[in-house]
Design brief:
Oligomer: single chain
Number of domains: 1
CATH architecture: Alpha-Beta Barrel
Helix content: 25-40%
Number of helices: 9
CATH class: Alpha Beta
Strand content: 15-25%
CATH topology: TIM Barrel
Structural class: alpha/beta
Bound molecules: ligand RRO
Radius of gyration: 18 Å
Length: 308
Amino acid sequence: PELSITIAGVRFPSCFMNAAGARCVTREELERLGRSRAGAIVTKSMTVEARQGNPEPRYFGFPSGSINSMGLPNLGYLAYAEMIPALRTFKKPIIASVAGLCEDDFLVIAKEINASRPDLIEVNLSCPNIPGKPQIGYDPEASERLLKRVRPLITVPMGVKLPPYFDPVHHQVMAEVIRRADVDFLSLINSVGNALVVDPDREAVVIKPKGGFGGLGGAIIKPVALANVRAFWKLLEGRVPIIGTGGVVRGIDAFEHMLCGASAVQIGTALVEEGVDVFERLERELAAVLAQKGYGSVDSCRGKLREL
Ligand code: RRO
């Protein structure tokens, strides 16, 4: 079966790519993604200045998922802007993930990184781990204001990474914001913010920042991710391509995302736990699922979820 897909006119040789944040901070990591079977190279969310991030331990993997409070460790946008020309040699799309500690930072970074011509830009409205900063994505007015200012600065396809929402009214309000903002694709979802994992043996938290609170990822969040993919797919009538993120550990998980409406999927926790060989395994497993079900391509199963 055909596992390549197209989003906003950009062809991806595989529908599997890394999630922003997962093994994509340094040049070495980005080049490793380039050499791997990943269908794209997604950068760590970048800020104006380079950041060390929060104190360690700041990521913890457990059997059903992960929790992190990385605190946006990254090389700063100038380093990524300089790296993009070399990353092009891998002949797969480059997605620059843009963050910011305030609204104006997003504008500076978007303008400059756009000039270095990544294939797409993903605007991260959903970093849950900066102490004292709310997620922009949980404030629809702030989201709309930011997207209205950033949109004209971006000439490549612009996507938005959103946090999970847990109420249909929030899906409706944010879908309207996305519709009005001329967004080319959505990445859904960021980690389930401000969860707490407890180690009962040590009677302790498992990560150091924020008293142990952090964003949940991995298998445990798949139903939340699927709900968000499905809700935005329906509200936007399939007109805005969606990259599904959350709980893709096996090929069948990617198939579920695609039934809900995803065009492609991103891999966070499973990539951190398994390394870049995860991409080859996922391709093999999804190909087997599609073949067994008689689908010739990822395109042919998109959005086909049956309701009862
Ligand atoms: O760096 C992080 O702590 C982080 C970010 Br920017 C994000 O968007 N999502 C996440 O789970 N961690």
